[in-house]
Design a protein that fits this description.
Layout (H helix, E strand, L loop, with lengths): L2 E6 L2 E7 L3 E4 L4 E6 L6 E7 L5 E3 L5 E7 L4 H11 L6 E7 L5 H6 L3 H14 L13 H10 L9 H8 L3 H12 L3 H18 L4 H8 L4 H12 L3 H6 L4 E5 L4
Parallel strand pairs: 1-9
Antiparallel strand pairs: 1-2, 2-7, 3-6, 4-5, 4-7, 5-8
Helix pairs in contact: 4-5, 5-6, 7-8, 8-9
Length: 249
């Protein structure tokens, strides 16, 4: 059965067929939906970061969206839903989002997954203001430098110098432009680069060191901490899992 994993700087998307999953927790805020909704609607769960949860049954198409809680979308999910509730899991029903979960599972185009995630975020009223901010050439210079072979590990001070800004001003402008703190952006860059190298047949140790992790355990632990998934299991079953990523960002 086909599953898809899509990772970019501000989100991790997963879709496929549910199967029983032991209770687990992850550092990212989650939007989760599966079949079983009334016709013309979509039942959605919003799950707080570090909330213990699991799946007791399986066999249904699902779509899962994970957002860094310090990102703009993660902040809006907490502000509009999780902070106003005593429960770490919120269940709501949304109007028909205009996509089919079974169709999404069978899709092999990453842009379709991204469009579906944007649609859900908009329906929840959590669309980031950064998506409407005009291009900032100062930040673009930093992103372009990070795309070069020796530029992806820039410190905040080095990035600020390229942007011709003070470090504090750069950090503020970067988050406004991307919706993500610079430190967290760098961490996601490392994960994406490591996954990219795994896809090119590097060993876990080779991928971890080349991406800037101290060792393979640090690499896999960071992925599990963010997503609740075992990265080695993902690649062990890679014949059934399509892995998409945005590189460079």
């Amino acid at each position: 059965m086909k599953h898809s994993l899509y990772i970019r700087a501000d989100r991790i998307l997963m879709c496929g067929i549910t199967r029983p999953h032991p209770e687990h927790r992850h550092a990212f805020a989650q939007i989760f939906t599966s079949t079983g909704s009334e016709p013309g609607s979509l039942d959605v769960q919003i799950i707080a970061p570090n909330c213990l949860h699991g799946l007791e049954s399986g066999g249904d198409p699902y779509f899962s969206l994970l957002f860094d809680p310090s990102s703009e979308i993660g902040f809006l999910l907490r502000k509009h839903y999780l902070k106003s509730s005593d429960s770490p899991i919120i269940r709501i029903s949304l109007p028909d989002p205009g996509f089919s979960l079974p169709g999404l599972v069978e899709c092999s185009i990453s842009s379709v997954l991204l469009d579906a995630s944007d649609q859900l975020v908009r329906q929840l009223g959590c669309a980031p203001a950064s998506a409407k901010i005009p291009r900032d050439d100062r930040i673009q210079r930093v992103v372009l430098r990070m795309q070069e072979p020796d530029g992806w590990g820039l410190s905040a001070a080095e990035a600020a110098q390229i942007a011709c800004l003070s470090t504090s001003r750069f950090l503020a402008v970067f988050k406004q432009y991307t919706g993500l703190p610079y430190r967290n952006y760098l961490l996601m860059q490392k994960l994406i680069r490591g996954i990219h190298l795994l896809n090119r047949s590097a060993s876990f140790t080779e991928a971890a060191l080349a991406a800037g992790f101290s060792d393979s355990a640090h690499f896999t632990r960071t992925f599990t901490h963010s997503t609740g998934m075992n990265l080695k299991e993902v690649f062990k079953n890679s014949q059934f899992i399509q892995v998409f990523y945005d590189l460079p960002l």
